[in-house]
Amino acid sequence: MKEVKIEKLDNQGRGICFVNNKITFVSNALPEEIVNIKLTKENKKYNEAIVTEYIKKSPSRVDSPCPYFSTCGGCRLLDLSYEDTLKYKRDKLKEIINKYAGFNKDIEVISSPNILNYRNKITFKIVDGKYGYYETSSHKLVEINNCLLASQAIQNFIKDINHLDIKNGELIIRSNYNDELLIWIKTEDDIKPDITYLKSNHKIAGIVLNDHPITGDSSFIEIINNLYFTVSYDSFFQINRDICSIIFNLINENITSTDTILDLYCGVGTLGINAAKNAKNVYGIEIVKNAVLNAITNAKINKKDNINYMLGDVGTCLPKIKDSVDTVIVDPPRAGLDNKTKETIINFKPSKIIYVSCDPITLARDLKELKEYYNIEIIKGLDMFPFTHHIETYCYLSKKEW
Ligand SMILES: C[S@@+](CC[C@H](N)C(=O)[O-])C[C@H]1O[C@@H](n2cnc3c(N)ncnc32)[C@H](O)[C@@H]1O
Q: Residue ranges of the alpha helices (H) in 159-286?
């Protein structure tokens, strides 16, 4: 056991201190706190530790409203005041974007209108009939029977998970604007869910077992800013509806009327459909088949006849587009843009690039390269994931003369 002072939070929301000059990451520890720690992992370059005693607590520390907080790996910052989590995200975003992309200005982080109950999707692990999230960096299950970050409809359903009769597997629960639930069970168990009970106690849009619906549909409808989106059980959809709505508004502020737009990594078509009303043509590219089928349906139900979708890898599909392009919207997974995709985008010479990112480090890496050809006009953080260490970022880039 060793007494240490926590210097700051790392990119994953863990406290940082030094033990014999070696960087040590401490869970559930805040800057300025003096704590006793126990090392849980000793690596050549770093240690990991847990707090055994708080000697001096931070004034920013609050009592976490979640009883599972100390062990559950679902979120890291529920013991910090919301204002301080925003400050942490502002500083972190500025530091990363400055360090890797050389952009040294203050960056605003837009707060989430809803700081609890904001998640419209959760993924539970189920082990020997017990369900919950894993502990941080482990495959040890923390059994829980509520998650305060989940929508109220999901929280209500969690209490009835045992009616699904799953012993081992994974469970993905989604809710929409109307508190309907879309349940996706991944298991090899021969299960007999009590569908009658579940339907009489919850608004079940559908339950999908592996890839087959066992009741209802395999998709439901979500509404953002009066646009309708069909979302299949295996399609991506933005986790926080309020922040998604803010992203739509930011995009509309930056897109003018005659644009031809590429919506790369388009999911069910959200960002492109939102932008389509101001556009001549939109091309969407997405690798998940059901998401592309959803996007085609979504263009129709929102009466957008100026959108074409391609199913496949962005890197492979993008060179097939022969139109001249004014605006490229990219919203890639955490890995960001690969070199070939960046090169192809630059070769289109679009006048604008809108980059929506869920990983500031890969975003900063990509901005460093795009900066040679594009001015960074706007960077805004968005608190898509309150009380976690994650942050969403919106960037608007304009073409330099070349
Ligand atoms: C962060 S999500 C964004 C989705 C969408 N823009 C939205 O706002 O809902 C990233 C999407 O990229 C898709 N994707 C991942 N790798 C891809 C690739 N190599 N080519 C095309 N799409 C990909 C994923 O299936 C997912 O739908």
A: 195-201, 241-254, 270-276
Q: pLDDT tens for residues 140-196?
A: 899 999 999 999 999 999 999 999 999 999 999 999 999 999 999 999 999 999 999
Three-state secondary-structure class, residue 322: coil
Cβ partners under 8 Å of residue 303, min gap 6: none
What percent of the chain clears pLDDT 70, i.e. is strictly above it?
100
* Residues framing ligand 1 (Cβ under 6 A): 236-238, 265-267, 270-271, 285-288, 291, 313-314, 331, 333, 358
> What is the set of domains in the chain, with CATH numbers?
2-61 (2.40.50.140), 98-112+239-399 (3.40.50.150), 121-221 (2.40.50.1070)
Q: Are 44 and 37 in contact (CB under 8 A)?
A: no
Distance CA 189, CA 180 (A): 26
Q: State in Å: Cα 52 to ligand 1 middle.
A: 42
Threshold 0.70, pTM exceeds: yes
Cβ pair 7, 17 in contact under 8 A: yes
β 22-26/15-19 pair status: antiparallel
